[in-house]
Structure formats: structure tokens, C-alpha cells
Design goal:
The protein is of the alpha+beta class and 370 residues long. Helix content is 26%, strand content 28%. It has 10 helices and 17 strands.
Length: 370
């Protein structure tokens, strides 16, 4: 049994959120502004999302009794991270609508299945190959060439679970360090810039995309996002079209992000999809202060069965992630004109840990400080 039908919520209804990180926190805050309640389920007792909801469940994702009680208190269930255990999603889906649908997780949780899905839509990706052994890695390199990137098929994020392979690398050691039996090798893409599209799709199939965002990473972690991206209007339209095609093909309900590379060429720049994130996304945080509706509100609207908004950007926007000890200097941002500080309520800073972010909005014709 599954509960796949879409339900239209009314103010006062309850949304269940799997995961208690900063994305869950900001989803719950967006829901509260619309008069909707949220309950958060997370195994981490220090989850920052617990601070902004009245009711929370702290239990393991394998705790069937806790999941059933959680589902009974919710009208619809969503999640803030894509690696929801399959068994957890199935238990909840048998009791309440889970959006985006659990079937979508089977595609987006596995990089190889995801790449096959994207290429099956006729959308370009880097050349790739399935790898399950050191010998298979050598065969894949013979076909794809170097440099290349080896990634675990599941559970990688912020640079974790992947490595760049160049001429001279010890392939046996690379495979051993990856510590997996299921990987994907991707050709290295000589990109000009990295961009993303955050798109919302309602239960009625209507899609709304935010402006294309340009992203800069430090040590494989997103550091800056700029909206709009410095690309042509034609390329931006193509990027939004790709995101809409993917969302529709998945039968998606909610917000997703599509990460792309802009690749220069003799006949002009082209787009290559890197990956899909089936959730609200770090590169969409600029929408909290930089647009008339945020990605978090759009997600809540979509899963509630409410109309999506047409997002209007307020100006040129820069989002800066506060990573690790960056959080210690939060006060310096509070006097910057046009800047808004968002702190996630996490504990002690750790290297590579996202502790907050700052959005800077500049009126048209003036750039934010960045």
C-alpha cells in the first residue's frame, strides 16, 4: 500500500520533515509564516531544526514505532536530504503522502542511475562508466581518458566520496581509498563556470524556476552564489528548460536543484548536467532575501498543493556561506548595507561545517560587496 495521492493542506495542518539540519529549519520557518505547523524527525538530538518547531521526534530512521507515531501526527511528509533510507520512506509512504515521491529517491540516490536517467532524456552529461573494481577502473579509464573523477554511487556530498584521477595516480590506491564496491567514473569537464537552477513543480505539473545562479566552491564546498549568473539570456533559458524537463520527467512535486557546467566551445557555450539534488539547495539560499518568494516557501507551497509563486528577484544578489570559523566573524556582516545574516544555531564550528550564510542584495546597477 502507498499513499501517492496529493492532498491539499489548509492552514493549521502539519507537515512532517525528515532531517533536522539547516534546510529543515528553514523549511519549518517558511511553513510557519504560511500558518502551517511542522514536526521534525531526526536521530540527532542537537538538530538545529528542533529549535523552531513545537513538536519533534528524536529517533533512528529504522525505528518503526517512532516512524508510525510521527506519520500519525502529520498530514504530508517531506525531507531535507536525499539519502533517506528506502525502508523509512516505504513505512511513511504507506501512511501519509511523502513528497517528493519515494520512487524519485531511487533515481537520485544513485549517481549511475541518475546519469542514465538524464541521458535518457537527451540531456548532455560528462562521459561516464560504471566501476566496481580496480580492474574495472582501468577499463573505464581506457575508454574515458584522463583526467577523470571517480565517485561513490551513493552518499557523497561536498566533495566527500570522490577523487580526481590524473596521469601517474596509483589506481589500486585510489580504489582502496574510495572504500566502495560501487562507483562511477566521469570524464573531467573543462568548464567555464558552474551554475545551478532551483525549480519548483506543483502537483498540477506547473513549473516555476528561479533565476539561474552562478556558484563558486572552496575545497569542494559551496562558498559563493551569485544571482543572476553571468551567462547569456539564451543559455539561461536553456538551463531553466533542462530543469523543467527533469522535474516533469520525474513527476516531481516540490523544489529541486539541477547543477550544470557551462562549457566553452567554438560554436558558443554549451551546458552539461552535473547532478540533481531532489530538495531545497544551498545555491538557492539567496532567494530568502533576494526574491519575492524563497525556495523554502515554494517547496512548502508545492507539497501543500497550493499555487506556486512567480519569483521576482530584488536586485543583484550574492550569497556567502559561513563555513567553520567564518561564523566567529558574523557581527562584521551586520553593518553591511543590504546584507542579511542567517545563523543556523549549530554548536561548535568545525572545518567544512556550514554554520550560516549571508545574503547581500544590491539594487539594479550596483553590485553587492560579495
Amino acid at each position: 500500500m502507498t499513499t501517492s495521492s496529493h492532498k491539499t493542506l489548509k492552514p493549521g495542518d502539519t507537515i512532517g520533515i525528515l532531517g533536522g539540519g539547516q534546510l529543515g529549519r528553514m523549511l519549518a520557518m517558511a511553513a510557519a509564516r504560511l500558518g502551517l505547523r511542522c514536526q521534525v524527525f531526526s536521530p540527532d538530538p542537537d538538530s538545529p531544526a528542533f529549535d523552531v518547531v513545537q513538536h519533534a521526534t528524536c529517533a533512528e530512521y529504522a525505528d518503526v514505532e517512532a516512524l508510525e507515531l510521527f506519520a500519525n501526527d502529520c498530514d504530508v511528509i517531506t525531507y531535507e536530504f536525499e539519502n533517506v533510507p528506502a525502508a523509512t520512506a516505504m513505512i511513511l509512504d504507506a501512511r501519509r503522502p511523502v513528497l517528493p515521491a519515494q520512487a524519485i529517491l531511487r533515481t537520485t540516490q544513485d549517481r549511475l542511475i541518475e546519469k542514465d536517467f538524464i541521458t535518457g532524456l537527451g540531456i548532455g552529461t560528462a562521459a561516464y562508466a560504471d566501476v566496481s573494481s580496480a580492474a574495472g577502473l582501468r577499463t573505464a579509464i581506457d575508454r574515458i581518458g584522463l583526467p577523470a573523477v571517480i565517485k561513490t554511487r551513493r552518499f557523497g556530498y561536498d566533495g566527500k566520496g570522490q577523487a580526481i584521477i590524473r596521469d601517474g595516480c596509483d589506481l589500486d590506491q585510489v580504489w582502496e581509498d574510495l572504500a566502495t564496491k560501487a562507483a562511477i567514473l566521469e570524464a573531467f569537464v573543462p568548464f567555464e563556470r558552474e551554475i545551478s537552477v532551483v525549480a519548483a513543480r506543483g502537483a498540477d505539473g506547473h513549473v516555476e524556476c528561479f533565476d539561474v545562479t552562478e556558484n563558486e566552491h572552496r575545497d569542494h564546498i559551496l562558498k559563493f552564489s551569485y544571482a543572476p549568473a553571468n551567462i547569456s539570456d539564451e543559455l539561461a533559458a536553456q538551463a531553466r528548460g533542462i530543469a523543467g524537463t527533469i522535474a516533469s520527467a520525474l513527476g516531481y512535486v516540490g523544489v529541486l536543484a539541477v547543477e550544470l557546467f557551462v562549457v566553452p566551445g567554438p560554436n558558443g557555450a554549451t551546458l552539461v548536467v552535473n547532478e540533481i539534488a531532489p530538495r531545497v539547495h544551498n545555491s538557492g539560499h539567496w532567494t530568502l532575501d533576494g526574491a519575492s518568494v524563497s525556495q523554502f516557501e515554494q517547496h512548502i507551497r508545492a507539497i501543500a498543493g497550493w499555487p506556486l509563486a512567480r519569483a521576482v528577484r530584488h536586485g543583484q544578489v550574492t550569497m556567502t556561506n559561513l563555513i567553520g570559523d567564518d561564523i566567529l566573524d558574523y557581527a562584521k556582516w551586520m553593518t553591511v548595507p543590504g546584507a542579511t545574516v542567517h545563523l543556523y544555531g549549530k554548536g561548535k564550528p568545525k572545518p567544512g561545517r556550514k554554520m550560516g550564510h549571508v545574503t547581500e542584495v544590491a539594487p539594479p546597477g550596483r553590485k553587492p560587496r560579495g
